[in-house]
Specification:
With 228 residues, the protein is mostly helical. Helices cover 79% and strands 0% of the residues. It is built from nine helices and no strands.
């Protein structure tokens, strides 16, 4: 009962939570860049900006995205459909891991150029790479779980776009490249990720309810057939 109450409490608020997180993250990034005129948002990593004056604003944006991910995970793990479909449980778990990655990135902030020389830096880079991988994997698992519904195609397409960009980011974030457009790649991935987050926040509650109704209908048919 507590699980169901939690689900009913966050489902109506999820579109606002995800939309607000996207606005906060973009606004914090724009303001932090404007306050550091020597920073190149195309060629320098977001992690570099965190270490500059007012870089805490970037951390606020990441925290907002992490909180939204936590609510997405809570929605999926507390839904009735999530209890019946393994793919939804996996998706919810991946959202939870993404939330943890945001926390790790914020706590272990470091200059990516010297990342491999320190334990904290290695943890930071590993979390960034894992997050770049988790975005598309979560979307693909979710798309497979809700296949047959009209939004499943959109979920899958967004996931494929994130997979391509995520691969670029995961490669460039390794401290073996010089003069790359890591900032552009990271912000492009973040933009697609935010679009995915807003899309999920506005569509997931309806998708989960539809999937749950379909599951209950199939269960009722099986039960009726046994009674005959």
């Amino acid at each position: 009962m507590t699980r169901r109450r939690f689900y009913l409490a966050i489902a109506p608020a999820l579109p606002f939570i995800c939309g607000a997180a996207a606005v906060i993250m973009i606004t914090c990034d724009v303001i932090a860049i404007s306050l550091n005129p020597g920073y190149d948002p195309l060629r320098e990593s977001i992690s570099d900006l965190v270490l500059l004056p007012n870089g805490w604003m970037e951390e606020w944006g990441m925290a907002a995205a992490g909180i939204a991910n936590a609510f997405l995970a809570g929605l999926m793990l507390s839904s009735d459909a999530g209890r019946r479909h393994r793919g939804l449980l996996v998706s919810g778990g991946l959202f939870a891991v993404s939330t943890a990655c945001f926390g790790v990135i914020i706590i272990f902030n470091t200059d990516p150029g010297t990342a491999v020389t320190t334990v904290a830096g290695g943890i930071h880079v590993a979390a960034v790479i894992l997050l770049a991988v988790l975005f598309p994997v979560t979307g693909l698992v979710l798309a497979r779980s809700v296949r047959g519904f009209h939004d499943a195609v959109a979920v899958g397409n967004l996931a494929r776009i994130m997979a391509v960009i995520g691969a670029v980011v995961a490669w460039q974030v390794l401290p073996i490249h010089q003069d790359t457009f890591i900032g552009l790649s990271e912000r492009f991935l973040s933009g697609v990720g935010l679009a995915w987050m807003v899309f999920a926040g506005s569509h997931l509650p309806g998708l989960l309810e539809g999937l749950d109704r379909a599951s209950r209908g199939a269960a009722d048919q099986i039960s009726a057939s046994y009674k005959r």
